[in-house]
Amino acid sequence: MSTETLNFQAEVSRLLDIVANSLYSNKEVFLRELVSNGSDACDRLRYAAITQPELVADDPNYRISLVPDAENRQLTIADNGIGMNRDDLVENLGTIARSGTLDVMNQLQQAQDENEKVNLIGQFGVGFYAAFVVADWIEVRSRKAGESQGWRWASDGRGTFTVEETDDAPARGTRVTLHLKEGEDEFTESERIKHVVKRHSDHIAIPIFLGEDEGAEQINTASALWTRPKSEITDEQYTEFYRHVSHQMDEPWMRLHFKAEGKVEFTCLLFIPSTKPFDLFDPQRKHGVNLYVRRVFVTDDCAELLPAYLRFLRGVVDSEDLPLNISREMLQHNPMVQKIHQTTVNRVLNELKKKANKEPESYQTFWETFGPVLKEGLYEDPQQKDSLLELARFRSSERDGWISLDDYVQNMKEGQQAIYVLTGDSIEALRKSPQLEGFKAKGVEVLLLADPIDDFWVPSIGEYQGYTLKPVTQGAAELDSIKSGEDDEQQERSDEEKTSDAAIGTLVAYLKTALEGQIKDVRSTERLTESACCLVADEGDMDIHLERLLRQHGRMDQSSQRILEVNPKHPLIARLSERVSGSDNGGGASPEIKEAAHLLLDQARIVEGETPEDPAAFARRMSDLVAKGLQTGPVQGTATAATASTGDEAEAAS
Ligand SMILES: Nc1ncnc2c1ncn2[C@@H]1O[C@H](COP(=O)(O)OP(=O)(O)OP(=O)(O)O)[C@@H](O)[C@H]1O
């Protein structure tokens, strides 16, 4: 078969440019990446050989060899792992098959800081392509285990690569030959190579040799890192291992290394990254923990091993008890896997609690990065609800920074029966929500929740320490029973206000009639202090923000009717009450007031982040009122009950 010349996927070409520039200061990592690929290839073959021992019969000892050739300025990285055939070469070394490719490419182009770029590249697993930082061109010769045909792939990393059959491939596995650029001779020097391997690849469990002949020297420890005693592992070795398993280049934020003994025996070496992996919100929600059985890699895709809400974990779980030839299907309902799952979740959550107590500031950065994922557990894992609630941190209407539920409970007012929450699209918008006004006036703290997941877990939580979690947008505001410490003043005000109770009652009745069919009810509220009106959900109805989210995602097509609450102390409402109840302007329902009723509802909808049901009618009403306001001349002073009615109504629309 003749030579095929193929184009790199467009993203690969762009990536190659970025890699060449941004990895340059850290170029020795190419060796780590290629050794890591060789090790993965051996791991995969070892697993395949459990059911097909003939694949390795003539060469059962896995190894990686680094072969420098100073004379020709070449370095070859060879492994006797699984190998690649033509299609594998084209697919693996010509494209980036990962989801989220474009996203990361865009982030890469926008990244300013070198470290940020290196980290993004690391998350992406550019692995192999890093070799173009030191090589002009690269040849890959490979023969897949169990196949007879060998293949040669070659490229100078400038847009195209070639693939052809070759007789010159290894008996099994892959040989990557780097034709080093001028000036990169250091990577043919034995001492330099040994140093780089010791530094970045000592944790690799497959032996790495310098040279291929009889006298080849093994230059790594070659025992699985997680099996070594903790006291013998340095921080650097842990970090390099983390980078190997996570394909990220950042520092791990936390590590957890333990051996579970008892009914089920296994070793765990887990890490939490310090930066967000680019696919954290990928719909597949896969975790990054590899399953090994007695040091043999089995799969990186055992969903049952860990819950999706811990998918930011990276590392390995190595079981002593599972059968080596276990299939995916068998893993699904395996009681040992379930036990490993439970034990590991408990250990991770406990470790997080310790971190939260000992290093609260560092814990907050973790929470900012992974809190939205951890919160998924609040409705997916009822067993861990209490632990997760203890770990959760929140923004609050009363304080800056993050607070825990315990902090909240300690700050509750006398008579307060619930933990109040408000969900929405952003913390900034929530801080301005009219629903908070009454709570703020009484100094009652409200938790502000702006992650999409919040709408889902809040209803499922029920209580924390005997207090119900309650959205402030739902039900009556219950503020009467909470003491603010200003009760005398409150008393005085309420005497004064009683006079207008009847008038407000009439307005409420009138609004109900005017807006019939559009709302469930109208009521006077204490919830508001500055705004004229707002919308709330009836007790037992779905939260307004949750409903909007579901509608946006096509999971719901109807919208529930809401309750319009009006603030009796607001000048506009007071003036409307007077007009409706009667003495001036003939009383009752003048067309002007009917228009105002619609404007009240529409402004409440707008504040809620919704659109008026009939935007054209809203615009017309508003223009009419403003025009009338202008005809009667400038409005004097601030809006009070004595202000011209048209001025008030114009304000209703603003
Ligand atoms: N020595 C090798 N033997 C067999 N396959 C290899 C080898 N080197 C690379 N590959 C294949 O090429 C793919 C891409 O390698 P690359 O180093 O670019 O990314 P990677 O981050 O290692 O990929 P992944 O994270 O998916 O393992 C690998 O996933 C593997 O399938």
From TrEMBL:
Renumbered residue ranges of the record's region Disordered: 480-500, 629-654
Location comes to:
Cytoplasm
| Region spans: A | 1-328
Assembly notes: Homodimer.
Q: Name one GO cellular component term.
A: cytoplasm
- Region annotation (C) maps to 549-654
Task: State the CDD domains in the record.
Answer: HATPase_Hsp90-like (cd16927)
* Domain called Histidine kinase/HSP90-like ATPase: residue spans: 26-184
Q: Which Gene3D superfamilies match?
A: 3.30.230.80, 3.40.50.11260, Heat shock protein 90, C-terminal domain, Histidine kinase-like ATPase, C-terminal domain
Q: What is the lineage of its organism?
A: Bacteria, Pseudomonadati, Pseudomonadota, Alphaproteobacteria, Rhodospirillales
Residue spans of biased composition, Low complexity class:
637-647
For molecular function, the Gene Ontology terms on record are: ATP binding; ATP hydrolysis activity; ATP-dependent protein folding chaperone; unfolded protein binding
**Which HAMAP family does the record associate with it?**
HSP90
Provide the binding site for ATP: 33, 37, 79, 84, 92, 99-100, 123-128, 174, 328
Chief localisation class: cytoplasm
What is its biological role?
A: Molecular chaperone. Has ATPase activity.
Q: Name any one Pfam family assigned in the record.
A: HATPase_c_3
Protein name per its UniProtKB record: Chaperone protein HtpG
Keyword terms: ATP-binding, Chaperone, Cytoplasm, Nucleotide-binding, Stress response
Family affiliation: Belongs to the heat shock protein 90 family.
Q: Which domain of life is it from?
A: Bacteria
